[in-house]
TrEMBL record:
InterPro entries: Glyoxalase_8. Pfam families: Glyoxalase_8. Residues 4-138 form the Glyoxalase-related protein domain. This is Glyoxalase superfamily protein. Residues 120-144 are annotated as: Disordered.
Length: 144
């Protein structure tokens, strides 16, 4: 299975097969069963993974839970601003916990909000000195 459309088709097939054997399930329940069969926690997680694999696009939305790395530091947070910018997005993320953007022991710089630009793949074009994207954003399927 490579796309959300294929997963939905599999759910319809599963639903018909179960109905034929006397087990009635809703379409939503069939989607959840397909997600579990494919190693995902739920349909939303599977759908996001398939969308990203099929299109290279990380599906993001305002107030959506996200996780990622900023200047090499892991974070979780919520999108507070999102707008189309060229072939990507201008994004602002309110962090759940402040992130220290300085890697020196002698001082720190705690950030509570990140503003940046990312491509449709969730990665910034700007790089750190070691070559990694300054900002990497993914949907956080474990949070609502």
């Amino acid at each position: 299975m490579r796309t959300p459309a294929e997963a939905k088709a599999q759910a319809r097939t599963l639903r018909r097969a179960l109905a034929a054997s006397g087990h009635t399930v809703s379409h939503a329940e069939a989607l959840e069963l397909v997600a579990h069969q494919n190693g995902a926690r739920d349909w939303n997680t599977l759908n996001a993974r398939l969308m990203k694999e099929a299109t290279g696009h990380v599906p993001l939305h305002l107030n959506g839970a996200v996780r990622g790395r900023y200047l090499g530091q892991p974070f979780t947070g919520r999108i507070v601003s999102l707008s189309q910018k060229g072939d990507g997005y201008a994004i602002a993320i309110q962090l759940d916990q402040p992130v220290d953007t300085v890697q020196f022991a002698s001082f720190s710089n705690l950030r509570r909000r990140i503003n940046g630009s990312i491509g449709r793949n969730g990665r910034s074009a700007a790089r750190t000195s070691d070559g990694f994207p300054q900002l990497i954003v993914e949907r956080d399927g474990g949070r609502t």
